[in-house]
Write a structure and sequence with these properties.
Blueprint lengths: L11 H12 L8 H5 L34 H23 L9 H7 L5 H18 L14 H11 L2 H14 L4 E7 L7 E7 L17 E7 L6 H4 L3 H8 L5 H7 L2
Antiparallel strand pairs: 1-2, 1-3
Bound molecules: manganese (III) ion.
Manganese (III) ion (MN3) binds next to helix 3.
Amino acid sequence: MKFKPTTCTMDKRTFIKISGLAGAGIVATPLVSTLIGCGTAPQSPGTAAPVGFTLPELGFALDALEPAVDRATMEIHHGRHHAGYVRKLNAALEGHPMQGQSLEDLLAQLKPEDTGLRNNGGGHFNHALFWTILQPANSPADTAPSGPLAERIQASFGSVEKALEALTSSAAKRFGSGWAWLVQDTSNPDRLFVTSTPNQDNPLMTGVVPAASQGRPLVGIDVWEHAYYLNYQNRRTDYVQALVKRINWATVAGLMA
Ligand code: MN3
């Protein structure tokens, strides 16, 4: 059974319900893009309805990630940067043959020269995932991986600490703007790995990123300066170390195939 969103806006309650069910093995596990992704808004016959993706709401208050991420950074990051990717993605899709496709399908078809869709489609997906896998400091949700996710981390990295070290190191070494990822190998679901990509590229862009970076993204860490510079200035590693403590591992487990 494939989850079909009824609107283009991510609904956190729906997401939690679905990821909970998915964790119990009842339904196929959705990618975040499936939850946010429809290229066309519902249309009534005879109306010129607006077409496109919409900015998903945050599932928490703007200051809920403090002190790891400050409120001002969140305001600008979600309300301006992410909103800008959505707006430019919709503009790039106007009259484009890929208009109306899910974000996941769109990303998988991109070629390196599809600059507008690559930067803004990636920007929309990456940020939607980012907001989804973070949780407030006072959240009652799981704070450590468990079940199959914990087993796969153990088998792939040796321990959760080593997995987080690999992720933090990958984030620190990414030169310039980009993302560090925890990825599930699509041909061997028991294998998780860490990689990084430049700009707004991501592991779903199989026509763009190297084979070693392709797979199912479970965690994305934004290392663009806009994600941390107000509070951390050039201390990227401090930001990443604080951020990985805010990962909602129950949500991440629900994103695994
Ligand atoms: Mn960003």
